[in-house]
Amino acid sequence: MSRTVVVTGSTSGIGLGVAKAFAAEGANVVINGFGPADAIEATRSELDALGAGTVLYHGADMTKPVEIEDLIATAVKSFGTVDVLVNNAGIQHVAKIEEFPPEKWDQLIAILLTSAFHTMRHSIPLMKATGKGRIINVASAHALVASPFKSAYVAAKHGILGLTKTAALELAEFGITVNAICPGYVLTPLVEKQIPDTARERGITEEQVKTEVMLKLQATKEFVAIDEVAQAAIYLASDAAKSITGTHISIDGGWTAQ
Ligand code: NAD
Description:
By secondary structure, this protein is of the alpha/beta class. It has helices at about 15-25, 35-50, 65-80, 100-130, 150-170, 190-200, 205-215, 225-235; strands at about 5, 30, 55-60, 85, 135-140, 175-185, 250. It has a single domain, classed as NAD(P)-binding Rossmann-like Domain (Rossmann fold), CATH 3.40.50.720. The chain has a seven-stranded parallel β-sheet with strand order 3-2-1-4-5-6-7, with helices on both faces. The longest helix is centred in the middle third of the chain and has 29 residues, at about 100-130. GO terms for molecular function: 3-hydroxybutyrate dehydrogenase activity. This is 3-hydroxybutyrate dehydrogenase. Belongs to the short-chain dehydrogenases/reductases (SDR) family.
């Protein structure tokens, strides 16, 4: 029987790569995120054709708890349960703390941290009922180390690692593992959008942002590929990873080794 996988923020970037990898394995997948309706439908039908499972789209806004509840309820109504939950949706905002708009702070914390609490609290009873489950939180190297001008992002990412560990301890005896993946810089729309802002904050060119800021500590001097993150998620969701819980896998080209 196909597993059911919910991936938040999967209309683009890393989440889309993760959803694709699970769809190709034959899972039923619920994709989520924003974008033009026709582009989302094209993505959904492309993923649906990849494997034996069915791919559905749900447009829940990760700042809205009622919509998050409906996302999980829709997975249950369509496929019976949730076997794998991937919390991935994210945005970034780059500004000094004293100039950081408070509403942006709230939005980042809601999307990057609180939404995972809501998806988890609705999915955990389902996983406990089947005696198995996998929760994978796409965190960041910024869950382990900081960078200036990213206060809300770094705070939320450090927070999701704490939530990962707490949930792992609560769920260890129920056949449910909870882990984080901590990528370094991956060239997705989220990263491309912050290049001009970082250039402005630091008074440097956009090319310098890539080479002197983003890849400065990434010892490989290369961006991480989306599929590297997707394959780590596939591994964490496999039986081979059943004793891995409450921890993270860094995929950061050596960044946090320093
Ligand atoms: P992206 O911009 O390509 O994709 C983000 C996804 O989240 C999109 O599908 C978008 O529609 C969705 N989203 C945004 N706000 C939402 C909301 N309110 N409700 C529902 N969906 C929403 O970004 P990405 O780089 O693929 O980032 C995905 C995750 O990976 C994020 O959690 C990010 O912090 C993390 N991450 C990214 C990098 C990187 O270098 N790109 C590095 C480490 C961690």
